[in-house]
User: Fold these one by one.
Assistant:
Number 1:
Amino acid sequence: MPYVVVSTQIRVENGPTVVGDEQSDPELMRYLGATLTSQLGNDFKEYRSPDPPRVLLDKLELRGYKVIAMSGIGQTCIWTLNKPPEFA
């Protein structure tokens, strides 16, 4: 089953929003308006969107994704979404 993790820093709740990693579906990332970026010091890349989390969660819902969990970790909010098999 496809999963997506969306996260943002509380202090920048209006964006940018992290929506995926290097192995995420490129077509879905284009739909979300996300670009693959690399931050200085990290040895991995991640997809970021300038949109706030609410906009991305709305877009993902239109594609059949449902929020299955949400958590706060330090200054970060994280949502885990799943696309049920009937939408895959």
Number 2:
Amino acid sequence: MLMRGGTSKGAYFLAGDLPADPAARDGLLLRVMGTPDARQIDGIGGANPLTSKVAVVSPAAGADADVDYLFLQLGVEEATVSDRQNCGNLLAGVGPFAVERGLVEAEPDETAVRIRMLNSGSIATAVFPTPGGIVDYDGGTAISGVPGTAARIDLDFAGTEGSSCGALLPTGRPRDVIDGIDVTCVDNGMPVVVAAAASFGVTGYETDLSRLRDRIQSLRLQAGVLMGLGDVSASSVPKTTLVAPPRDGGLVCTRTFIPLRMHASIGVLGAVTVATAVLIDGAVGHDLADLPPPGSPLSIEHPTGRLDVAVELDGTTVRRAGIVRTARKLFDGTVFPRSSL
């Protein structure tokens, strides 16, 4: 099933429909997407990291969740498949997909699906409308980066603090220095290196920052070691987010790289993690943020709009995180992968 999840798009599969061997599975998915090719012309990928994604869904292995969800990020020009990060955007489509495929029985009005994110082991709960026991994708909720409106999907996260790195602040400090630049290494569902845009000699409001590619790579390679992730040269994490003072009434303005291409917006868990970082006294961006009253949404500005998240922080302990997304079923059918890479 091809679905839009949040501001991403991906292919959703039942785990049982894919090879059990990870290498065989990954080879098949590369052929499905049309990777490696800048246009992905011979597959269903959209020639962009945001549309070269896969969700693998299965019945939950434990009683604390309803389904298990494995996210796979496929390269576009390079034949890579990574499971080292979560994807909160494709996560928005997992609950509806689970109902569509009969893994979860829908409730008469709305359905809550507990989803174990296998990439990190953490749990998210998705709540979405199912009038008459059928998923309803239509609604009045708009999110930046997606035209029109769709049904509201509430995502509530539990246990994402330090999900990949083992701690909210993997270095044990709210601030480190890499290449002479102050950074905050943080993980609340997504490993992120936060740096002030001004440290790179830019405003943080630009639409093209490709000139920073080499500096961003140097920064994240060193941060990966500091964060306990090891050699991240072939990994999409940690992400790097440059922060600047807000321009549209938000918490902070951002420019995010995945890992070296500037994101058209910002990822769900990336936004949650950046919001968490700038709430911490002494962290990079804390002095730039326009902090709203406690309990108010934290609006993260990005190149195509803003993304509202909820984060409840007690010192450096995350009490709760949540976000509103939408998703839509685009196509349900059979894909025909090419025979070889």
